[in-house]
Design goal:
The chain has 218 residues and is an alpha+beta fold. The chain has one domain. Helices cover 58% and strands 18% of the residues. The strands form two sheets. A four-stranded mixed β-sheet has the order 2-5-1-6, sandwiched between helices. The longest helix has 41 residues. It is elongated and about 85 Å long.
Length: 218
């Protein structure tokens, strides 16, 4: 009789633990989905794909990157929102394409170049002391030649492309723009201000990667 009662109690405890796990998972997924979606909606990224993974094609990719960033920096100084930067990028699509083509030609190659603005999948990526979770982001994409080489990513708004690589620190004005676009907690998540925030970012990263895998299989 006692064994039956003990079994009944254990069964109830297991059911409660399982229900708690389900509830916690649902809350976590909802939280991650909301935060991730808002972060994705708040930034505009740059995506450059090399012709191949040979050293010279990778070097060419970086030369294209440098010229594109230099030009974007020169025309976007007065942009203060994602909408403004996307509108500006749309106006200058032909300029981006010509800049990339000029770099390719000047270095002795005849690769085709295509430039477009769309919504593309990105992995988790760190820019200096700011990290963005995996997900689908609006971006300017530049394909060089067969575009079968390694990618290069950065963020055009807020301008995290202009990170000081020697210090790995995002400029304060870029952080301020990012902070204006995100809630306080979202900003703390991507900037890793505390251990609690880092845990939430790992949760965000985990569920974002799972969601990306699920989406790609559909």
């Amino acid at each position: 009789m006692k064994n039956h009662h003990l079994f009944s109690v254990l069964k109830k405890i297991i059911i409660l633990i399982f229900l708690l796990f389900i509830f916690t998972s649902i809350c976590a997924i909802s939280y991650v989905s909301t935060v991730s979606a808002h972060i994705q909606d708040s930034v505009f990224r740059l995506h450059i794909i090399a012709n191949s993974n040979t050293s010279y094609d990778q070097d060419l990719k970086y030369m294209v990157r440098d010229k594109i960033i230099e030009y974007m920096k020169s025309i976007s100084a007065n942009c203060s929102s994602k909408e403004e930067i996307i509108a500006l990028a749309n106006q200058h699509l032909s300029d981006f394409e010509q800049i990339a083509k000029d770099v390719v030609k000047e270095n002795g190659y005849n690769y085709e170049v295509s430039v477009s603005i769309g919504n593309f999948e990105f992995p988790t990526k760190q820019y200096g002391d700011v990290s963005l979770p995996a997900g689908f982001y609006d971006a300017l994409e530049i394909n060089i030649g067969e575009a079968s080489g390694q990618n290069w990513w950065c963020v055009m708004f807020p301008p995290l492309c202009f990170v000081d690589v020697t210090t790995g620190i995002v400029p304060d004005d870029s952080k301020e723009l990012l902070q204006n676009e995100l809630s306080e907690e979202e900003f703390y998540i991507v900037s890793g201000k505390s251990s609690d925030i880092k845990l939430k970012f790992k949760l965000l990263e985990l569920f974002s990667n799972v969601a990306s895998i699920y989406t790609s299989k559909r």
